[in-house]
Known about the structure:
By secondary structure, chain A is α/β, with parallel strands linked by helices.
Amino acid sequence: MAEAHPVGFQWVMEAKKRGATVIHVDPRFTRTSALADQFVPLRAGSDIAFLGGVINYILQNELDFREYVVAYTNAATIVREDFQDTEDLDGLFSGYHEETGTYDPQSWQYQGHDTRVPTHGEMHTQRETGAGLRHESHGAPVSNIAERDETLQDPRCVYQILKKHYARYTPEVVERVCGVPPEQFQKVCEAWTRNSGRDRTTALVYSVGWTQHSVGVQYIRTGAIIQLLLGNMGRPGGGIMALRGHASIQGSTDIPTLFNLLPGYLPMPHFKEHETFDLWVDAIRHPGQKGFWSGARSYAVSLLKAYFGDNARADNNFGYGYLPRMTGDHGTYQQVLNMIDGKVKGYFLLGQNPAVGSAHGRAQRLGMANLDWLVVRDLYMIESATFWKDSPEIETGEIVTEECRTEVFFLPAASHVEKEGTFTQTQRMLQWREKALDPPQDCRSELWFFYHLGRLVRERLATSTLERDRPVLDLAWSYPTQGRHDEPSAEAVLKEINGYVVATGDPVSGFTALKDDGSTACGCWIYSGVFADGVNQAARRKPGQEQSWVAPEWGWVWPANRRILYNRASADPQGVPWSERKAYVWWDPEKREWTGHDVPDFEKKKDPSYRARRGTTGVAGLAGDDPFIMQGDGKGWLFAPAGLIDGPLPTHYEPAESPLRNPLYGQQANPTRKVYDRPDNQLNPAPPEPHSEVFPFVFTTSRLTEHHTAGGMSRQLAYLSELQPAMFVEVSPALAKERGLEHMGWAHVVTGRAAVEARVLVTARLRPLRIDGRVIHQVWLPYHWGGSGLTTGDSANDLFGITLDPNVLIQESKVGTCDIRPGRRPTGPALLNYIAGYLRRAGLDASHYAPLETPGTAE
Amino acid sequence: MSQGERRSGKGDRVMVPPAEFRSYYGRQVVKTPVWRHDVAAYLFTGGLAAGAALVAAGADLTGRPALRTTGRLTALAAIGASGYFLINDLGRPSRFHHMLRVAKPTSPMSVGTWVFSAFGAAAGVAAVAEAAPWLPRDGVVGLAARALPAAGRAGGLAAAAAAPALATYTAVLLSDTATPAWHEAYPRLPFVFAGSALASGGAAGLIGAPIAQAGPARTLAVAGAALELTATHGVEHRMGLLSEPFRQGRAGRLLRAARLLTAAGAAGALFGGRNRVVSALSGAALLAGSVATRYGVFEAGKASAEDPKYTVLPQRERLATRPPG
Amino acid sequence: MTGPNSYFGPIDPAPDAGYVDAPPRMGFFTDTSVCIGCKACEVACKEWNGIPDDGFNLLGMSYDNTGGLSANTWRHVAFIEQESPSEASMDVLREAERTVSTQFLGMPSSTLPGATGREDRDLRWLMMSNVCKHCTHAACLDVCPTGALFRTEFGTVVVQEDICNGCGYCIPACPYGVIDQRKDDGRAWKCTLCYDRIGEGMTPACAQACPTQSIQYGELDELRDRAAKRVEVLHQRGVPEAKLYGHDPADGVGGDGAFFLLLDEPEVYGLPPDPVVTTRDLPSMWKHAGVAALTMAAAAVVAFLGRRP
């Protein structure tokens, strides 16, 4: 966090100053470790084993916050009798189908579940479309009628299933898998549990690297299980903080730049699953379910009204037919492979530098070299704009400038200080920023670009009578513009996002005011309220010392300016704060309403003792002590009966590339991971496949404080470049000795995809770990470098192949296996031969790929 | 990583075993003086000017015209060269006159500037006076020419009065720094420079004046050389760890050469002074010795700045001996 | 305007320099125990002051690639990696050693005194943002022959770039190795403690940018109190190695206007352990020079008087 989020880290330091204990778990000793009270090095890719060990410690010692767990989580819920755990099936859950590599989740359901669940074939479709991303936020279908055993004794209740599932994750196993000594592990467990309960809460912070694993979603789920067991969710000082990759990444999923989502986590319609408007809406609100997604029809209609204005009418389903449909995997990696195969003709890149920043850089560049056209909008001529003349593939002869068919249009972009708008940070806080100065020369904002692009396209099509052009022509595409360059008003866009009454144009006060009859329009329902009362709430800047400690008047937080989600959980079932020290929101019995420091994340007037009649659905179905109001059962999910492709409980699987056989189960790696078995995407062998010793070391990548992601914003600046002026690789003194690497000398790191050269930094901050009886060396590289800029170097992301998490299609780019050798790598065609030699020795050829399922007995 | 690592001496063998010490990656603590060889050259020319001015004044007062002329001309040439070196070494030579904005007793360079200026003016007048015999005796010019010898004497005496200051302030100039070897040498360095100035001034007389008039110059040269050798020996051996930079590397080589040249020059002057050639050769050796001494001292300072042990160890010792509290 | 302690000893520098009704002395307290090594101070300083970059050189000194304070780096973050391996990790290291035979050519490392005794922390990564000390007795200012360097009303020391003629004297004079000459420019440059900001009531750029309050700007007296309390807290929390550096008005430079809380000996960070302003010895230097000058004059008199032709 100190490395990549130094400004946010000030609050960790503030907490430390006030006596907080800071524990840092990371494969390598970083600037964060330097300031932490305890640093725990572990093997990259072993996090579920580590956190599973913590869960086991909690459950074996009964250190869970029992009252919270029973009342607010699904611990007491009974799961179907035919559910089988990874304990029973050697690393698989019940319902696995080999042919699709997915599960039939029927047996994972709650006992008494009465709604339809997807088949494994549909699960396959869900994986193709990254469906986990939407379930994650809007709750997967579950029944609100579930059997519960509040004594937690039933062997089929979630609590007991959890206990059995994690019983194997002993401190000895943690040591064996993660390389963390038991004493060190014990300290973490003690600190975490001791600091959780009525009077104290513990926060879990992770950074996006956690998501970049073939089991990334389950990493975070494991953290969530711990935080639920310890009662750290919905309470001040608790929670799970996701540190984003850069400014407004939160915003870019809220109002997404993703193929499978529409604003506010509404799913992009699928051509088969969501044939009609009603099917689509029902797939979101799940009739018969409790919770706030029951308003989905209003959110959806209002969105379509915002898109199509007067052309969205009840008689045309508000233009639902105009929305594009997903037909399969349109994720960024599939797109790139499609480019290589010649199936994609054009590509827009906005503020993204895949030639450096995405896994398997060579595939990215070869894909871009096989387009008809490419539009790059960026601050500088980044590598993704110049690959046709200076990429590494020019040197190897794989791209020939004269023959490269891609026509590249480079459009200079305005920087964040040269345009107005909002950033949404990890706390879901929108902060408005003013434009500080005009962008130079031809640089323009994204808003300008898309508005005028749309305008011009619509002008071109104005006379078209073709049906296919209707969606574009029927768009409501009118925004006030200002200035010399007709810059659209960002505030007008924010007003539209907030939503308004169509008849009057008056802004709505929040999403509860949205209607499903077309009388309101709203660009993103969760942002509704950001322009309440006609005031740009995101622009509020009342200093912290002039308001309460929750600081509700700084910026605006979705939903409804709530600073902590699910904050009903900060009070006990009766509505009384768990403790004076941790009081946050509570039930005021006199006024008969919820009140507190924050906006209560609950119906204001719903009495804690309220119980819905059996069968009541929607918001009214939520009991007065159901704090997790977006979940179908109002409970925090220790066990996820639905919504995840890879199982209801996080299980340790080895990364797709690993030097080790999974010490816990016969199943080696995530059996549902998304793979692309192609000759241009060779993955290094992992046991039980032979020849894993060819790539004996584990490597991981991350950022330096001094640079920003793919370097487009930092390698062009002298003041930043001088601080980290060259690509380097960090190795432990022991590995340096083993491989003959010299401090400050050259070395190159080799995988099945690439060889990347770097200067060597020998440092004790990296150290070998003893894993499963072997010494495992880890190698670390920063991924900031590429061929352009003031400082240049090989790109670490070239080393990775493409394997994706099945739930959200995020690539496994934080762990892989490699070899490292002293000296510089070969150049030109010799480089290809060099890598081919490794592939040969590793037995990798186009006729065989590692199977998803790896039955067999673990040691 | 590099913490606590012992730095072994590089180049010459370390004579004093280096004590255990820690540093930041072996990097120097104080900055190396940015002065280039101009300053080392100036140390010599300034001293030569001072020595020559003394010789000239003595010769003037004792009726040794040839020696006087040699002294005066040498002084002017040397002080002229000094001016060139000093200005050339400035980062912004066009701003040399900014030196005259202030007079600061805490700045040896400011003091030196004023001494230099006074000396330069006086030495200039004295040297110009040497032109009197070649000027017409009539007219306005003649009037001036007739006044010149008196002005020359006044100038010469003034220059001589300023000369000892000019020759020794440069020692303070070097010592009044955090450069470990220079600072530590502050009680000795003025004597090295005084001796070196006398030796070079005398040497100029040995070269430029006939044997008959060069006697006092010879005496001064030998006495100066003796002072220079003695004081330098002290610098090289009596300052503990901080004598090391004077014995090692470039500085060590220069100072060893200086010792040989100065000793040889002094011996030649002492025993072969009646021979014009030997006398001149001795003078040349003394001059060369003086040059080597100045460059040696200059280099030793730089070397002492570049190795952190010369900064850290003496300070650590000082702390160790300081009573607690 | 010189008082009894003008060359050495405790003093309030601005009034001593002749300011009447000088504002309180301002300074920095840099608390290295909370420095996260983000280098925001280095960048903010360069941005505000328009300083050129220092060249792109990978130095291999942990994450320090600018090396030290210079004419082009007025804030500098030092990185020190210290290792004192615990038993458990030593076992693994020993095992790793056994499996290899080639000679290790990497950086040496060693166990250190002063490394923390906490058992769970066998590795320390010290970070420290260094800066001009704005000494009470500033040698750079004392030796400057042009008056380019001057004492401000805030007690800080600043170079006037329109006066400096690049004589270079201040550079070896500084006991901390702070001020330096910019090669292509010829003049001497160093931290101004943002004289152009603090005069307007603003915070210096580095302190403003520091996210963790490792760099604190304020009235020196207040900072000294604050620092003493911080050391106490750290001692209570089991960080016995925490100590102040440059805070003492009785030290060799009369106390620094920018002082530090360090977690190891000063020299580990590249700081002199016992800096003394060189001008403390200046009177004695002049005396010695005077004796030498008299010796010279006497020698001349003797040489000529003793040998009348």
